[in-house]
Specification:
about 210 residues, alpha/beta, Rossmann fold, five-stranded parallel sheet, 9 helices, 5 strands, about 55% helix, globular, binds adenosine-5'-diphosphate, nucleotide-binding, coiled coil, transferase, Dephospho-CoA kinase
């Protein structure tokens, strides 16, 4: 089958940075979004062996009676420990990657010019190596905290815990080709996004491996 040389762009950012908001803006332009969060839920249905591996590793108590995974309970359990988190990730991430690559392949088969991989933990999972470009969405921490408190109705302490659990902005920025400052109004964000997408289309593919 003929395939195009789709430009693959990673979109990432910390919790509450505005990544989903920007993802929606991109979708409105008829550009394909490959949503890693959505895929992380879908793989549980596509590959039943994941559930089996989780059951063997963590036990029956993380499952509902109907056999579906109690994501919240398991999430709370592994959140406390780096080792447990890694164990769960080692089970599930290969499947997520497989699905992401599969969706990129479909974009190529559909001769799409550009595809966006929307992944909050793109860099944590070393997916940036497969991207032609990486866009990092950022806001100052004060705005980030206020927006998440408002969106998720959580306390400042809970929000801080979630922020501290992610790679810091300073670490992520090293891998970014473009940065969107989403601390101001949405028009400002939209105009930065338009410039970046134009620039990417002008530059074309930028394979790093
Ligand atoms: P993320 O997907 O990175 O966690 P969201 O896109 O959900 O972040 O944005 C976090 C919250 O901030 C949402 O409630 C969203 O509506 C709001 N928000 C995003 N960008 C802006 C902005 N530029 N100005 C004001 N509010 C914003």
């Amino acid at each position: 089958m003929t395939q195009s040389n789709t430009i693959v762009v990673g979109l990432t950012g910390g919790i509450g940075s505005g990544k989903s908001t920007i993802s929606k803006m991109i979708m409105e332009q008829d550009i394909s979004i490959i949503d890693a969060d959505k895929i992380s839920r879908e793989v549980l249905n596509i590959y039943p062996e994941i559930l089996l591996k989780i059951k063997n590793e963590f036990g029956e108590e993380y499952f509902y009676e109907d056999g579906s995974l109690n994501r919240k309970k398991l999430g709370q359990y592994v959140f406390s420990s780096e080792i447990l988190k890694k164990t769960l990730e080692n089970i599930i991430i290969p499947y997520i990657k497989r699905e992401i690559f599969d969706k990129i392949k479909k974009c190529r088969e559909n001769m799409e010019e550009i595809a966006i991989v929307d992944a909050p933990t793109l860099i944590e999972n070393n997916l940036q190596i497969y991207m032609d470009y990486v866009i990092l969405v950022m806001v100052d921490e004060k705005t980030q905290i206020l927006r998440v408190i408002k969106r998720d109705l959580q306390s400042k302490e809970e929000v801080l815990k979630r922020i501290r659990n992610q790679l810091s902005l300073e670490e992520k920025i090293q891998y970014a080709d473009y940065v969107i400052d989403n601390s101001k109004d949405l028009d400002f964000t939209k105009s930065q996004l338009a410039h970046i997408l134009n620039d990417i289309l002008l530059r074309g593919k930028n394979e790093k491996i």
